[in-house]
Amino acid sequence: QVQLAESGGGLVQAGGSLRLSCAISGRTLSSYAMGWFRQAPGKEREFVASISRNGGSTNYAYSVKGRFTISRENDKTTVYLQMNSLKPEDTAVYYCAADRTSVLGRSRWDTYDYWGQGTQVTVSS
Q1: What is the per-residue pLDDT for 43?
Q2: In Å, how far are 27, 39, 93, 111 from 17, measured between CA atoms?
Q3: Which of 78, 94, 118, 122 is most open to solvent, judged by the fewest CB atoms within 10 Å of its CB?
Q4: CB burial readout 59-82, b (16+ within 10 A) else e
Q5: Which three-class secondary structure state does DSSP give residue 31?
Q6: Whole-angstrom Cα distance, residue 116 to residue 97?
Q7: CA atoms lying within 13 Å on the CB side of residue 123
Q8: Left (φ > 0), alpha (ψ -120 to 50) or beta: where does 120 sit?
Q9: Is 94 exposed, middle or buried, given 0-12, 13-18 or 19+ CB atoms closer than 10 A?
Q10: For residue range 70-106, what is the model confidence (pLDDT) as tens digits?
């Protein structure tokens, strides 16, 4: 049974930074491409970033490119999302997800097999 647990969310002022962590248990992290998604109230879940199984390839949504960085430490079974220059429109619940099929990681949320419970990020103006 694969379990994902996010942490690191909170309240931050616009322009600030947060680092989200996602710890995986039950399986080896290197078996999965990983992704971060977010969902704001009244909006659909949207892709934020993905990273390949070996960490060599990353992909970002246009809205976060240049501000967010996804990384992974397979030996620590943790995936990170470093978020800089945060904006109020980044406010959402952030979820990490594991894809057991893809090697590179994908942007469609329905291709991921396992999900964490989410962590709230609130950016004040």
Answers
A1: 96
A2: 30, 19, 16, 29
A3: 122
A4: bbbeebeeebbbebebeebbbbbe
A5: helix
A6: 6
A7: 18
A8: beta
A9: buried
A10: 999 988 799 999 999 999 999 999 999 999 999 999 9
> Low-confidence residues of the chain, pLDDT below 50?
none
Neighbours of 42 (CB within 10 A): 5
**Token digits of residue 54:** 């070996």
Nearest to 97, CA basis, from 69, 67, 117: 117
**What token pair was written down for 33?**
């491409």
Cα 54 from Cα 121, distance rounded (Å): 27
Look up residue 12 and give its DSSP letter: E
Q: What tokens does 89 get?
A: 């429109």
Q: Which residue type is seen at 119?
A: T
Task: State the Cα–Cα distance between residues 17 and 86, nearest whole angstrom.
Answer: 6
At 110, is the secondary structure helix, strand, or coil? helix
